[in-house]
Amino acid sequence: MTGIPIMKALITLAAMLLLSLPLQGAGADIQFASEVEAIQPGVPFTVALHIVPDKNYHTYWRYPGIVGLPTSVKWRLPEGFKAGEISWPAPEIVDMAGHPAHGFRRELLLLVNITPPEKIPTGTITISGELAWMACHKECHPGFATRSIILPVNPAREPKYHRQWAASIKRERDALPRKCTLWKVSIESDPDETPVVIRVRPATGASKNPGRVYFFSEDGQVTSEPAQKARRQADGSYLITGTRSEFSPKGRTTLPGTLVASGSWAADKPLKAFRVEPPYPVK
């Protein structure tokens, strides 16, 4: 239930901005793309939401910040099929009418794992979904569409990967932010209080200069405006200070999010982002 007030607030803010901005087009297009050309009974496969924004437009991350709406899908699946959650890539700071928000300026693939049942009685299946998104530049465009993809059923043991989409989906999957041990993350503020203070300490293998750093809150505890402050400390750690959203969920014991750097978090390889969920201090 904690997500409902946040979503209502985001919709209200977006609607206020939309009323003052002219609508002239779609802003973005979304289609389904499958990693496989044919599915196998009982074998999970990936369907991606392929988002192509218009020139200079951006779409939004799972928690957009103070303004914007995240891309979403309401699935219509055959009986016995189950869809997982969207796997979100690392976002960037985008601008919506002068307000900083969390989103994507690029073409991207949002990945969703779908698990079919052990027995499929038909030779083909249809996967449909009701899509909703918002794309913004100088004006904003809410988008709504129903998309479908038809896939044959392949009883063979070996998967048949899609010649156009399999490699792109793999690249997007490989780039997803994951947890890492190169930096130790802790919270130096209490639950439900503002500001939110995050300490990021280097460990073995950490880069000496990751560049500009930013914490993207996954569940809306930290807002995107006012801007965060990240200061490098004498011991090499970072102290990130952000403002708790007035719509922040209450009583959380952890702070899930994604840490993004303009350089690399790792000393010996590219690592732009990693996921964290530090616990709040217990009194």
Question: How would you explain this protein's 3D organization?
Answer:
- This protein has 283 residues and is mainly beta.
- It is built from two helices and 19 strands.
- A hairpin with a 2-residue loop joins strand 7 (92-96) and strand 8.
- A four-stranded antiparallel sheet has the order 1-3-9-6, with helices on one face. The protein has a four-stranded antiparallel sheet with strand order 13-14-17-16, with no helix packed on it. The protein has a three-stranded antiparallel sheet with strand order 4-8-7, with no helix packed on it.
- It has two domains: 3-174, Immunoglobulins (Immunoglobulin-like), CATH 2.60.40; 183-276, Immunoglobulin-like.
* Proportion of strand residues: 35-45%
**Low-confidence runs:** 1-25
The gyration radius over C-alpha positions equals 20 Å
> Would you identify the CATH H-level superfamily of the largest domain?
Immunoglobulins
Helix tally equals: 2
The global form is: globular
Q: Order of strands across the biggest sheet?
A: 1-3-9-6
C-alpha end-to-end distance = 27 Å
Characteristics:
four-stranded antiparallel β-sheet; disordered N terminus; globular; 19 strands; 9% helix; Immunoglobulin-like; mainly beta; 2 domains; 283 residues; 41% strand
Set down the secondary structure blueprint:
Elements: H1 3-19, E1 28-34, E2 36-38, E3 45-53, E4 59-65, E5 72-76, E6 82-83, E7 92-96, E8 99-104, E9 108-115, E10 124-136, E11 140-152, E12 160-161, H2 166-174, E13 183-187, E14 196-202, E15 213-217, E16 229-232, E17 238-242, E18 257-261, E19 273-276
